[in-house]
Amino acid sequence: MAQDKYSAVWVSNSSMGDFINCPRLYYLRNVYKDPATGHKVNIINPSLALGQSVHEVLEALSLLPSEERFKESLLIAYERSWEKVRGKMGGFNNDEQEEHVKGRGRKMLERVMENPGPLLNKAVKIKKELPNYYLSEEENIILCGKIDWLEYLPEDDTVHIIDFKTGKHDESSASLQLPIYTLLVANCQKRIASRGSYWYLDRDNVPISVKLPTMEEAYQMVLDTARKVKEARLKGEYICPKEGCFACRPFEAIMNREAEFVGVGGYKQDLYIVN
Questions:
Q1: Which of 146, 142, 145 is CA-nearest to residue 223?
Q2: Model confidence over 36-95: pLDDT tens digits?
């Protein structure tokens, strides 16, 4: 099949994660557009608002020379970022709830300032705004995704993938996240990844090392799921295995006009709160 980025099936860690959880969720979050606005729909809640703000602050550091990253308190940048998710735009029900969640993020950034570790070292940035490449040219499938941090390792000219975690639960061992990042790193810049870590900012002072898959393992794992996504799109079949599971039910509330519209977020998504 000829390469065509407009007709290609684009897959990412988020979209394939949705598909694995529930094909109906995948459709409602990644395919459906509100006929009235032409926008995709999404749900905002306090946990997502927290993650968005903390990630924005930390990821911006990689754009600065290492010696300048901590000249200004991260809490100043955090206040600026938080303005985007204040009140209803962050899914908050009241000021007390918002201040509690905001305080958690403040503690995470204080932890990083006290234990900057790898964030003091040289970082590698992938030049594309949204890193992507053809996972399969023949099948017209493109893999895309943003990586939180790539630490440069001069001893062997490789990179260390670091993913910031703001939730309270550990990433599943079956997660496609590191396999996807391994492939993106290898195909979107010149160095390979030799290390991978999750940094659970709520509790750990240092990133926790995780074994990376081989390139062959990563490719097969990701392609297998990507093919299932493409098959569902070709057939137009997005069936919830439980006829309304915990994953797709909140989005069904949007379809049923049972959710509260709060505004338009990034990537022109209509954002809703589901109670």
A1: 142
A2: 999 999 999 999 999 999 999 999 999 999 999 999 999 999 999 999 999 999 999 999
User: Domain map of the chain by residue range?
Assistant: 9-36+121-242
The rounded distance, in Å, linking the Cα atoms of 213 and 196 is 10
% of the chain residues with pLDDT over 70: 99
Q: What are 152's two structure tokens?
A: 């440069």
Give the residue-averaged pLDDT of 100-105.
98
For residues 222 and 180, the answer to whether their CB atoms sit within 8 Å is yes
**Nearest Cα residue to 53 out of 81, 27, 94:** 81
Q: Whole-prediction pTM value?
A: 0.94
- pLDDT for position 2: 55
Which segments of 32-80 are extended strands (E)? 40-43
Whose tokens are 């979107």? That residue is 188
Separation between Cα atoms, residue 212 and residue 221, nearest integer Å: 13
Domain spanning 9-36+121-242: CATH 3.30.565.10:
no
Q: For 230-255, write each residue's pLDDT tens digit.
A: 999 999 999 999 988 999 999 999 99
Q: Which residue has the tokens 């395919």?
A: 31
Other Cβ atoms closer than 10 A to 1? 11
Cβ atoms of 7 and 140 within 8 Å: the answer is: yes
The SS3 of residue 126 is: coil
